[in-house]
Each structure stands twice: as C-alpha cells, then as structure tokens.
Amino acid sequence: QVQLVESGGGLVQAGGSLRLSCAASGRTFSSYAVGWFRQAPGKERAFVAAISRSDRSTYADSVKGRFTISRDNAKNTVSLQMNSLKPEDTAVYYCAAVSYGIGVVTTASHYDHWGQGTQVTVSS
Q1: Whether 111 contacts 98, CB under 8 Å
Q2: Are strands 118-123 and 10-13 parallel, antiparallel or unpaired?
Q3: At 19, is the secondary structure helix, strand, or coil?
C-alpha cells in the first residue's frame, strides 16, 4: 500500500504559477504510475497529467504547454508545475497512483490510490 499526500495548493492571480507535490509513503513511488486530476465545483473529476513508471508523460489538452509533471525518486514525490494559470484552472487537485501497467494512465477508475486533494484557486 502507498499513502499519498498533496501539497502546494493556494491562491494565485491569473498568469501566476504554483507547484504541487504528491508525496508517497509506504512504498517506493518509482514502481507506480502517477496521475494528477482535478475537480471544479459542480463538475466531474478530470484528467490533468500523468507520468508512467518509465517517466513517459501526457497531458490534457487544456493544460498542455503550461503544466509539467515530473518525478523525483530520491524524494519519493511527483510534482506538477503549473504556469500561466487561468481562472478555469481553479479546482481541487488530486494525485493518484497505480502499481500495474507500463504506460501512462489517464482514466481515474484505473487508479487505486488517491490523495486527499489540495485546493488551487486562480483569481482573475
């Protein structure tokens, strides 16, 4: 089992940046595919970015070119660097992990470990 804890959320003005971190405990994070999802009020949870066990990454079209997902195995963390933030990026951001599969995982139901979420608010 792996436990996930997100951090780094907050309030930022449009055009600003935030860096979210997902820290894992209990297992070596490098053996997991990891994804970031977000859920805005009244909307379903949506895919944001994912990184495979071999460090391949993929992004939702809405964040491509602005967000970067990366892994630091020494710190057992996966980060999401978010630049050029927009008000529509406002949501609770969740990290998720799954230990099987060799590619990137973009479907929420394929993940079996989730963090509690961190709020990101972008003001206009």
Answers
A1: yes
A2: parallel
A3: strand
